[in-house]
Write a structure and sequence with these properties.
single chain; 448 residues; alpha/beta; Rossmann fold; 6-stranded mixed sheet; 5-stranded parallel sheet; GTPase activity; nucleotide-binding; GTP-bd
Length: 448
Amino acid sequence: MANKPASKGRKRGNSTRHPGAVDGVKGRAGRILAKANQDGTYDTALEQETAVLVAVPDKRQPDTQTQEYLDELAFLAETAGAQVVKRFVQRLEKPDIRTFVGEGKLAEIKAYVQHQDISMVIFDDDLSPSQLRNLEAELEVKIVDRSLLIIDIFASRAKSATARTQVELAQYQYLLPRLTGLWTHLSRQRGGGVSQRGPGETEIETDRRVVRDRIDLLKERLKDFDKQSNTQRKSRGGIVRVALVGYTNVGKSTIMNMLSRSDVFAENKLFATVDSTVRKVVLENVPFLLSDTVGFIRKLPTRLIESFKSTLDEIREADLLVHVVDISHPTFEEQIAVVNETLKDIEAGDKPMLLVFNKIDLYNPEAQVEHHGGFEGMNEDEDAPAARPTLEQLKATYMAKMHDPVIFISAQERENIDELRALLVRHVSTIAQQRYPNVHPITETEEE
């Protein structure tokens, strides 16, 4: 993660000053700005930290769903480099306005954190600036909410100049409303009133201006990147564009590598791909452009969606979407719904779509949703299904109820790949004839 908790014996005040901070900015803002001057982002997960997870579902949410959400949060934490040692759950009608969890649960978390020397507490929802400050003061360890965790992962994954700029913009937009909680020396400033503004408050206003200026600069840079991307996309006229979309870690990059014979980075971790990658593919003398895009996830931070506009333009301007689904995941249907909802949010929900169920080699109809012990507040779900449908039953169900084409494959084991290629050729050819009737298709033979 980006920051380490201050040691208990450290003196406060100007000790928050980072040696590389610029423009007089202190604390977390100074560290981010200093690192941004070097390469446009800051490093994360420098060393493994121990973490506990906290979820506050409402009383109507099923226990199995709460468990699945915590599993995903744990996977996010592990991707960021943290070791999850315990989980806490408290059911409330709505989160506590001051500390998100109730007073009793907060005391329980604090006792465990102090006894086990935990370095970080991760919440499965976004925290308000005041909740973040109150929790840090009470628990005396680093507090991370879901948005910051995802942004940190994006920061470690971003490689291109565009992606690094997009992530840095998201970092500053997250940071700006939380600046007031980053300087402990402000507690010594004088009271308010006319002519009574303390130097600390002036310092915060200065730092806010620095961060706002940096945000404006990053937005201008992204406009330049957008112009370059638009120019590149216009130069691709006359060829069908296909975009791989889906939940994170469903195998999009593996399919990209298989179809394009390229070497896009693929890993069994969340958000292995942050940068958009475009490759030209020719199947049976039918050419098209295939793009691998960033994966979606539940509660994807809005600021990240806004920042990654240029990357998501690959989806908006695609002629055909290939929606990849991990059928081995116990909640793949919910993941489908999350992706479809995100596509609607970015105005790409009405595009032609090919639904690809991947990882059929890992599908086990007898597998139950795995339950992890070690946290409080969970009960067995009496309405949980006893077993999952067989793969043949799922095939029959989805092929009958879906209007769009459906195919079941294993990219890792190369199962049904020829059928996938044939389906792509058929749909790309149809789209090319409809949208570019006057363009003579470039065949593989002509290129040679």
